[in-house]
């Protein structure tokens, strides 16, 4: 998706050969027209799959996932990283390791929001080692729902995430695939 790649070139900051900072438009400050275009693109790529729900992980995945759900005309569900007084019973949970934060946390979704037989699309902001997507896929399985695919805004293709997901048989669609962050420069696949 050229619009996204251009935004990464103009406003992304390479912090190391492993870390790309995109807080100017994706995961701190959000660019609504870009998120709308991302939602349209995911809806185009996954349209016709009979999707019932879009699932993401709080917080950075919410903006692109919400726009995707809007374009598909379905509800958005997001897994919570922190327990609350209202999220206590009948939970679907998974342990997820965050590459960026270097911490493992338990994420949860109320079982009342994902039902057996529903067709679910996962949308997330980044794919590095695939742990977030694998955790969300585990939640989909716990619900007895079917995972239709995984939409990723930015994939770090030099890390193992895509391979881990495809090894499980999941369809992965990434809008911007980064080949390298070496030398402080972003280079894209394709």
UniProtKB/TrEMBL annotation:
<feature type="binding site">
    <location>
        <position position="20"/>
    </location>
    <ligand>
        <name>xanthine</name>
    </ligand>
</feature>
<dbReference type="GO" id="GO:0006166">
    <property type="term" value="P:purine ribonucleoside salvage"/>
</dbReference>
<dbReference type="Pfam" id="PF00156">
    <property type="entry name" value="Pribosyltran"/>
</dbReference>
<dbReference type="InterPro" id="IPR029057">
    <property type="entry name" value="PRTase-like"/>
</dbReference>
<feature type="binding site">
    <location>
        <begin position="128"/>
        <end position="132"/>
    </location>
    <ligand>
        <name>5-phospho-alpha-D-ribose 1-diphosphate</name>
    </ligand>
</feature>
<dbReference type="GO" id="GO:0005737">
    <property type="term" value="C:cytoplasm"/>
</dbReference>
<comment type="pathway">
    <text>Purine metabolism; XMP biosynthesis via salvage pathway; XMP from xanthine: step 1/1.</text>
</comment>
<dbReference type="GO" id="GO:0046110">
    <property type="term" value="P:xanthine metabolic process"/>
</dbReference>
<comment type="function">
    <text>Converts the preformed base xanthine, a product of nucleic acid breakdown, to xanthosine 5'-monophosphate (XMP), so it can be reused for RNA or DNA synthesis.</text>
</comment>
<comment type="similarity">
    <text>Belongs to the purine/pyrimidine phosphoribosyltransferase family. Xpt subfamily.</text>
</comment>
<dbReference type="GO" id="GO:0032265">
    <property type="term" value="P:XMP salvage"/>
</dbReference>
<keyword id="KW-0808">Transferase</keyword>
<feature type="domain" description="Phosphoribosyltransferase">
    <location>
        <begin position="35"/>
        <end position="157"/>
    </location>
</feature>
<protein>
    <recommendedName>
        <fullName>Xanthine phosphoribosyltransferase</fullName>
        <ecNumber>2.4.2.22</ecNumber>
    </recommendedName>
</protein>
<dbReference type="InterPro" id="IPR050118">
    <property type="entry name" value="Pur/Pyrimidine_PRTase"/>
</dbReference>
<feature type="binding site">
    <location>
        <position position="156"/>
    </location>
    <ligand>
        <name>xanthine</name>
    </ligand>
</feature>
<dbReference type="InterPro" id="IPR010079">
    <property type="entry name" value="Xanthine_PRibTrfase"/>
</dbReference>
<comment type="subunit">
    <text>Homodimer.</text>
</comment>
<keyword id="KW-0328">Glycosyltransferase</keyword>
<feature type="binding site">
    <location>
        <position position="27"/>
    </location>
    <ligand>
        <name>xanthine</name>
    </ligand>
</feature>
<keyword id="KW-0963">Cytoplasm</keyword>
<dbReference type="InterPro" id="IPR000836">
    <property type="entry name" value="PRTase_dom"/>
</dbReference>
<dbReference type="GO" id="GO:0000310">
    <property type="term" value="F:xanthine phosphoribosyltransferase activity"/>
</dbReference>
<keyword id="KW-0660">Purine salvage</keyword>
């Amino acid at each position: 998706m050229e619009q996204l790649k251009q935004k990464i070139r103009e406003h992304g900051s390479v912090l190391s050969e492993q870390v790309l900072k995109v807080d100017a438009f994706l995961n701190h400050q959000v660019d609504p027209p870009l998120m709308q275009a991302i939602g349209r693109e995911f809806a185009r790529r996954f349209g016709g799959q009979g999707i019932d729900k879009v699932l993401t992980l709080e917080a950075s995945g919410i903006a692109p996932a919400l726009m995707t759900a809007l374009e598909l005309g379905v509800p958005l569900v997001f897994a919570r990283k922190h327990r609350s007084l209202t999220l206590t019973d009948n939970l679907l949970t998974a342990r997820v390791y965050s590459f960026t934060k270097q911490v493992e946390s338990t994420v949860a979704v109320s079982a009342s929001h994902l039902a057996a037989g529903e067709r679910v699309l996962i949308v997330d902001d980044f794919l590095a080692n695939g742990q977030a997507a694998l955790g969300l896929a585990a939640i989909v399985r716990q619900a007895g729902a079917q995972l239709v695919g995984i939409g990723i805004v930015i994939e770090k293709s030099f890390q193992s995430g895509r391979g881990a997901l495809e090894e499980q048989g999941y369809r992965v669609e990434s809008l911007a695939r980064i080949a390298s962050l070496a030398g402080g420069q972003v280079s894209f696949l394709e």
